[in-house]
Amino acid sequence: MSEIRFALAQIDTCVGDLDGNADKVLDYAHRAAKRGAEVVVFPEMTLTGYPIEDLALRATFRKAAWDKANWLAVELAADGLGDLYVVVGTVGSAAAEAGQDPRDAKPTNRLVVLHDGVVWSGYDKHFLPNYGVFDEFRIFSSGGRSVAFEVNGRKLGVAICEDIWQDGGPVAELAKEHIDVLVTINGSPYEEGKTHVRREIAAKRAAEVNAPIIYVNQVGGQDDLVFDGGSFVLDADGALVERSPQFVEDLSLFTLGADGRALPSTIAPDLDPDEEVYTACVLGLKDYMAKNRFTGVCLGLSGGIDSALVAAMAADACGGANVWGISMPSMYSSDGSKDDAADLARNIGAHYDVQPIEPLFVAFQRQLDLHDVAAENLQARIRGVIVMAYSNSKGVLALATGNKSELACGYSTIYGDAVGGYAPIKDLLKTRVWELARWRNRAAAAGMGIGGLRIVGNESGEPGVALPDGVMIPVNSITKAPSAELRPGQKDSDSLPEYALLDRVLAAYIEHAHGRADLLADGFDEKTVDTVMRLVDRAEWKRRQYPLGPKVTALAFGRDRRLPVTSAFRE
Amino acid sequence: MSEIRFALAQIDTCVGDLDGNADKVLDYAHRAAKRGAEVVVFPEMTLTGYPIEDLALRATFRKAAWDKANWLAVELAADGLGDLYVVVGTVGSAAAEAGQDPRDAKPTNRLVVLHDGVVWSGYDKHFLPNYGVFDEFRIFSSGGRSVAFEVNGRKLGVAICEDIWQDGGPVAELAKEHIDVLVTINGSPYEEGKTHVRREIAAKRAAEVNAPIIYVNQVGGQDDLVFDGGSFVLDADGALVERSPQFVEDLSLFTLGADGRALPSTIAPDLDPDEEVYTACVLGLKDYMAKNRFTGVCLGLSGGIDSALVAAMAADACGGANVWGISMPSMYSSDGSKDDAADLARNIGAHYDVQPIEPLFVAFQRQLDLHDVAAENLQARIRGVIVMAYSNSKGVLALATGNKSELACGYSTIYGDAVGGYAPIKDLLKTRVWELARWRNRAAAAGMGIGGLRIVGNESGEPGVALPDGVMIPVNSITKAPSAELRPGQKDSDSLPEYALLDRVLAAYIEHAHGRADLLADGFDEKTVDTVMRLVDRAEWKRRQYPLGPKVTALAFGRDRRLPVTSAFRE
Fold this sequence. Notes:
Structural class of chain A: alpha/beta
CATH superfamily of the largest domain in chain A: Carbon-nitrogen hydrolase
Oligomer: homodimer
Largest sheet of chain A: 6 strands, mixed
Radius of gyration of chain A: 25 Å
Low-confidence stretches of chain A: none
Strand order of the largest sheet of chain A: 5-4-3-2-1-14
Number of strands of chain A: 18
Number of domains of chain A: 2
Helix content of chain A: 25-40%
Strand content of chain A: 15-25%
CATH topology of the largest domain in chain A: Nitrilase/N-carbamoyl-D-aminoacid amidohydrolase
């Protein structure tokens, strides 16, 4: 048998953008053909974008997607690419087209092969994930059969994402059919440490079908999800023969040899764990801006670490010249904080305005005469009004700067510091915020300027705009004790356990779903456990009103962790 | 065979309140026994409350629910009620207890019979709804067998809610077993017109098993759902023999005769359609307050119809003396508006404060110098700060007063008039807002005072605190042209189609999922269709940041209509 050459087209699609996504497929198909590929494989739901949520239930959307798949097949052939096998994902609508009630006959998550001017072969995803961020059972019906097709005498079996995460189903069927390669298309969202898990599960399936496996993953941000790409190929014995880089669009080629073995190809190196998470956050923001047509951002700069890290990420996403940093000192803000905010803005080349809130606070207090927490919240809300005024008047996206620790504990003011359309670090615990700030400074010292991250839209991996003195985030913002500065001498540690401890309890309670007895058995003291559990349980309501932000851990707030707002249960 | 007497215990549970829910079961079991019942039937997931969302995935919660069911069985027997058959819903945890990964072995939605001091019989829900507001496939695994049990020589088949909405499954199995009665426990959320649909589907199942059907539904508000009760019994031929009232807790009895036929019992009358929706909104608010321990509310009173209706609902929910109405006139507020707000507050006996926003607006503008929409939003956001200041300083729940028409079109200011923890009319189109205001005034004229609604916590149906002159909502608030009053002479109709037209387009686009071509075929003109679709598609992001509010229509924003925030698709 002859060799066969595959292209892995790891692209960034936009949900609902049928025209743009199809154009990108056309572009990558041309590039793949030029490099000698016979088969080009795109991610899950290429044409529609992923995840499409309830758009799947709109008949007009399904019709438009079907028309677009046919258009694309014709267009490929007209461009002389009719011989190429183009594997793309889309939404299937057979049942709905048969006139059945969409509640009884939902659409499918479909893989199609475009070839010879037609939509040539179809496979419907069998296992529909409906846990964590996934809601596929809600919107799709399950496919009932496995599919393999022949290309130049070689038999290709196909599967979609979750199909390889569960035993049985289509891969078990394909194992009986002696396929030559298992082609999988995926929309697997990023989370810390997932690269390793993906590779393990793929190795298991390669062994099951006794053939190499191709794993093509989507890249890019979509709402609160970030897809990291990192597509790869394993040989039948699980050996890594190809790996695409994370966070950038990519077209890698790989050859299945005449002997049925995968020939070695390029292998992108692993990223440092801090670099990986930081990059995920920047890509989430950059793509959220691009897909919602924002070119700039605004945010409050307090001089603290959270707003400093968010500003740094924003500069990396859209360039410092498109960042509006607003210092909003109150009567309780320290001089150090104001200096740190100004230094940060200067380092990243951001616009920097000072808007003191004291005159506004005095005007409100003349009417309202508030005390205690109500007076503290008033300061935060005046700042919220100012940030939104910048957003409205300059047409830029307001960024919320809250981290996961304070979000979990409700240590923020709703409609105050929590305002914004996107929250870049909402899935990072405070201790991680410090780690990432330190990593970004190390990268700056090593020469990585603003925009030097290798992400979608910046694929070249150039070092970016140089930082003055090679410093990005003022060291003082990283090392000083955290404070909301809403009353004299206030420190976060007045209200919360120290973050080093708090974050460990939060990880156990939220990520690992430990109950009270488990937490005590983990060795945490009773007072800390009860404090943290009370804060977290009370804060559920606030979290519902937080803006979107990228998911980077296994269990983020949002579509992952969904608990009733009203609940009397305490663990 | 002898007669057998059933009690339908239509109760209001709270999610997570295992102790409170179990105590209520005990109380109603005593009352049922006193009235001669041999079997008492409670709603779906009685012990846990419903819907429990991801609480189902917490092992500590499942363990606590299991312990509570056993405690309750023992307690019933100790109280001399061991002979009674007590049918309750709870969460099943067999698979998880077997040590399996909860992702592979999810819990079940379970019905248990408490009898003779033990948890005596169990049935697991077969059909798991995962559409609209339901996410059960996410959290439960499906039961695989039907269950019938004998009481005094009569055979009782059981089913849980969705089990009767779909063909096949446990009811089809029971049809072969010659059961004497089909007992169903339900958590069926309210929506307009659903009473009729429930009765039709129940009649179908009664015919299928050729026996009477008992339908016990939950009552009360839970987050953004309202359960209306309205439990009922149909004879084998579909005839209505018992109906419990809507929106109140209730214990009704019904007898299955020696001849196998249902004996006629009490039948609560139907409510007027406007009364039904109004009552659903008030119960949603009242229960949200009770279950989150709020005793009062605050809201801005503009003199317009939206805030007037919300204030009226609030007075009905918690009494006018617990309502803080805040008039926040700007330089553009008309005298008429200020008078209407004051009249409304006086009518319902609310606290009434005037907080002019002009001095605050001037203070902000001195720093920010905003124009156009940014300046309009500033006014709304200053009001938002004031409303939240009242909420914080008085410890009361802030109410957002937005309706579904403006919410759908994005005609509101995020962090401005949209602030609040609960939005009582977020699922009412503007034209419906006017209708409900007129209905409430007719009810007031007919003698229904504040708190005169028959809802949970006010079961007696007393007419309530009399209204001065028998008027609740100032007629002027109902009849005048709607205006946001954010610039001189502004009218809603400057930016939006007239509401009579807009609401019809919104109903077609949102509720009936019509695409652009359908809307044109519906007879709407192209300009209106394009305007409305553009507004609705753009507003998706804002809607994510709105507070909770009760669902009353088939398709509300929130858990029902979930579209990606980022999407380039236009229908």
